[in-house]
Design goal:
- There is one protein chain.
- The chain has 2 helices and 17 strands.
- By secondary structure, the protein is mainly beta.
- The chain has a single domain, classed as Jelly Rolls (Sandwich).
- Strands 1, 3, 4, 6, 11, 12, 13, 14, 15 and 17 form a 10-stranded mixed sheet that branches. Strands 2-5-16-7-8-9-10 form a 7-stranded antiparallel sheet, with no helix packed on it.
- It is globular, with a radius of gyration of 20 Å.
- The N and C termini lie far apart (65 Å).
Length: 251
């Protein structure tokens, strides 16, 4: 038995080289410098150029605010849709904050679904940057989610994911660990977002640090263009706010 220990140790060491690096390994990847070509797509005064449920969306002090209450409720998720064009390859920058223990989202390259619910014609399906005001639910603000689709969370915070042509994801963990994420995230305050979509590669940055690097090579499910929208979550009363929305197409 004693003579087998070196062999076992060697096998364990060999398997360790096949595993992804431990969470938080490597240096944080900073967000790129802001391009001078970015242009505001929200005028800071009203919702000109946007379309959503007027009961739920408003502008206050230069900030877009979506809010549900007992009197103005929404059973399902609803969206404020940008009418300025479709998003394909782009850079998007904005800031968000929302009520405690709630979540919302930033939609892009998404489909506008108008059929099926006459009371809520502002339904969007596609890629979503998760907006959340909660750090105890591990590592979620900034992940990429398949809103209305079948793939769920496609890349969590701190992950580099390649979704290959056969519909299988390869995941490595290279971003902030839980302690690092909690230090990065601004609870009950404004958080800065950068989304870069270029071809099949999508990157999310939160407060100056890359939190998601996602490549979608699935020939059937990958989205290459679509609408840009802001989500207001249905269900219990909540609010979400967005400001400083700037956008530029990459080509």
């Amino acid at each position: 038995m004693r003579s087998s220990f070196p062999l076992v140790a060697g096998l364990v060491a060999g398997f360790a080289t096949l595993l992804p690096p431990p969470l938080g390994a490597g240096e944080p990847i900073p967000a790129p410098a802001e391009s001078p070509e970015l242009r505001p797509i929200f005028n800071g005064r009203d919702l000109e150029g946007w379309d959503g449920d007027p009961r739920l969306w408003s502008v206050r002090d230069g900030v877009i605010r979506g809010e549900t209450t007992e009197a103005a409720a929404c059973k399902g998720n609803t969206f404020l849709i940008w009418k300025g064009g479709r998003t394909r390859d782009f850079e998007l920058r904005l800031s968000f904050r929302c009520s405690a223990s709630n979540n919302s989202g930033i939609q892009y390259r998404s489909r506008h679904i108008t059929a099926g619910n006459p009371s809520n014609p502002w339904v969007v399906r596609g890629y979503q940057h998760e907006v959340r005001n909660e750090i105890h639910y591990p590592r979620v603000a900034g992940f990429i989610y398949d809103e209305g689709g079948t793939r769920g969370v496609m890349a969590g915070v701190g992950e580099t994911v390649v979704w290959n042509a056969t519909g299988k994801p390869t995941v490595t963990t290279t971003g902030p660990d839980q302690a690092g994420f909690e230090k990065l995230f601004r609870l009950d305050d404004w958080n800065d977002v950068v989304i870069l979509a270029d071809g099949t590669r999508i990157r999310h940055f939160l407060n100056g640090v890359q939190v998601v690097d996602f490549t979608d090579d699935d020939p059937e499910l990958a989205l290459r263009d679509g609408v840009l929208a802001l989500q207001l979550h249905g269900g219990k009363p909540m609010w979400v706010e967005f400001r400083g929305i700037r956008f530029r197409p990459l080509r």
